[in-house]
């Protein structure tokens, strides 16, 4: 499996943070992943210090005007990156005229031989449930769901379960893994959320957890990945553990 959609309909749970640092972890481990910012809010694009014009972004691919390979650019952190732009939100509003948008990414990745070639692909999804998010889910081998350890986490997870269940008739049951983010060991809410996630999702809840760590935000503000910014931090260890677990479960190969 190589295509991972980092998805949760809830905003602020860590989709962009997890995508950025998991990609950097892969790069540290000797591969050059392809990362696609599929959120019109373009947080990942901004995080990595880019301010592209709309025609330099994934929007152009959805308009049918450029292949993905033409839009990918190498970044200093060792990833190939396709940025996003606010205008990408147009794709979500043109659903009636462009029903084929939902399959476009899967077909594009296959046609350009980007899927199945052993290079991992990470997609940072928008929380909006429109053609963009569906196109990421339809293309994905695995849905990685960050869940923030707060008191509304389980509501968000239940909503997401319903969404994924609705997709089953189009693409079968998508393999998924839940990743607890912003975890504070011993904190009552965090432990409660952890317990309930474990009960509800069993083996689909990853053993890896991303702890609440200010350094993740601080690294983001400098545009650096966690391994350059704070190599000895717990955050760096958390992401290394996450990658090991995904590899061990054969959910990610490179
Ligand atoms: N483990 C963490 N520790 C501390 N801050 C975090 C952590 N995960 C995410 N954040 C912060 O929470 C905010 C929302 O995270 P983000 O990745 O943008 O979520 P999403 O993409 O799901 O909307 C950001 O400011 C980010 O820096
Ligand atoms: Mg985001």
UniProtKB/TrEMBL annotation:
<dbReference type="Pfam" id="PF13614">
    <property type="entry name" value="AAA_31"/>
</dbReference>
<dbReference type="InterPro" id="IPR027417">
    <property type="entry name" value="P-loop_NTPase"/>
</dbReference>
<protein>
    <submittedName>
        <fullName>ParA family protein</fullName>
    </submittedName>
</protein>
<feature type="domain" description="AAA">
    <location>
        <begin position="1"/>
        <end position="164"/>
    </location>
</feature>
<dbReference type="InterPro" id="IPR025669">
    <property type="entry name" value="AAA_dom"/>
</dbReference>
<dbReference type="InterPro" id="IPR050678">
    <property type="entry name" value="DNA_Partitioning_ATPase"/>
</dbReference>
